[in-house]
Design brief:
The protein has seven helices and 19 strands. It has helices spanning 15-23, 56-59, 96-105, 127-132, 175-186, 211-219, 244-251; strands at residues 3-9, 31-33, 42-49, 64-72, 74-76, 85-88, 108-112, 121-122, 125-126, 142-155, 162-169, 190-200, 203-204, 209-210, 238-240, 256-257, 267-270, 276-284, 290-297. Strands 1, 2, 3, 4, 7, 10, 11, 12, 13 and 14 form a ten-stranded mixed beta sheet that branches.
Length: 301
């Protein structure tokens, strides 16, 4: 079996625990997730099964959407509700117009310093392991893009001071850090107190299956919730290759001549029997001949 599971991860467990629980039902296949979701968060956690795991790096590049609850008037060492509060204030006098002005500062391309409590590597060690030892290091900022940052709710009249945001962002964005940085810009501090991922690439929350329900179904041998291998590739041009000799060459990793390829960075190549063969890169050689270079070759046997 090869394909994807769109899991609605519950709060309180790690993404790896979800993979571990689902892997039991696919003993002969590799299973992996398409981007970590923090233990405190719920929502979309896509899993790849079998040959679909070979698409992980490609699919990790997709944008993601979150609904985030931010609590104002405090700072946490982990930048979320699971950490220890290092600063608390009840002295908050914030107008809606001030909040909106600060939110505007965080739209578009911004710099983020990954939090110490994160899985980022620093000289061969995970930052969170250093943080647990009380070691703090200087982490270089990273550029990320906030495509959309919309105010959903605001409770600024009195404690608890809360704000709910919808965020659409690029790969590598830390919503915890976004909330922390907004709090710093407001001058009152803030931490992430709730998080739901409502989409990851083409995977949507309204179509996700609860983890326990997914376990029940696949445990009964019902693989109907397994999305097709090419589900997240629908945006790529599709080409059917009829020439069996050319198919053999592609499967062996050779570049072949193909006329009338679409102008695209990647294309999906299928056999006449509708089997996905490869993801390929259309190229033009110095003689002006259209060529197809294999990027990912798949074996479903």
């Amino acid at each position: 079996m090869h394909g994807f599971l769109n899991i609605n991860k519950p709060r309180g467990i790690t993404s790896f625990e979800v993979v571990k629980r689902i892997r039991r039902y696919f003993p002969r296949q590799r299973v992996g997730h398409l981007g970590t979701l923090d233990p405190m968060a719920d929502g979309v956690l896509p899993l790849a099964v079998g040959q679909a795991t070979r698409l992980t790096n490609l699919l990790l590049e997709g944008n993601k959407g979150y609904r985030a609850e931010m609590t104002l008037g405090a700072v946490a060492d982990t930048q979320d509700a699971w950490g220890e509060l290092t600063y608390v204030t009840a002295d908050i006098d914030l107008e809606l117009s001030e909040l909106l002005a600060v939110l505007d500062m965080f739209r578009g391309e911004i710099e983020q310093v990954p939090p110490m409590y994160s899985a980022v590597n620093y000289q061969g060690q995970r930052l969170y392991k250093l943080a647990r030892q009380g070691i703090s290091v200087e982490v270089q900022p990273r550029r990320v893009t906030i495509y959309s940052l919309e105010l959903v709710e605001s409770h600024l009249e009195g404690p608890p001071y809360r704000v709910v945001l919808d965020v659409v962002c690029s790969k590598g964005t830390y919503i915890r850090t976004l909330c922390h940085d907004i709090g710093q810009a407001l001058g009152c501090g803030a931490y992430l107190s709730g998080l739901t991922r409502y989409f990851s690439g083409p995977f949507r929350l309204e179509e996700a299956v609860a983890l326990e329900e997914a376990e029940r179904l696949v445990g009964q041998g019902d693989k109907s919730i397994l999305l097709p291998f090419d589900f997240p590739l629908a945006h790529l041009p599709r080409v059917v290759l009829e020439d069996q000799n050319a198919i053999k060459k592609l499967r062996n990793g050779n570049t072949i001549s193909v006329a009338n390829l679409p102008a695209a960075a990647l294309v999906r190549i299928y056999s006449p029997g509708n089997e996905v063969l490869v993801l390929g890169r259309p190229l033009v050689n110095p003689e002006g001949e259209m060529r197809l270079q294999p990027y990912k070759v798949f074996n479903f046997n």
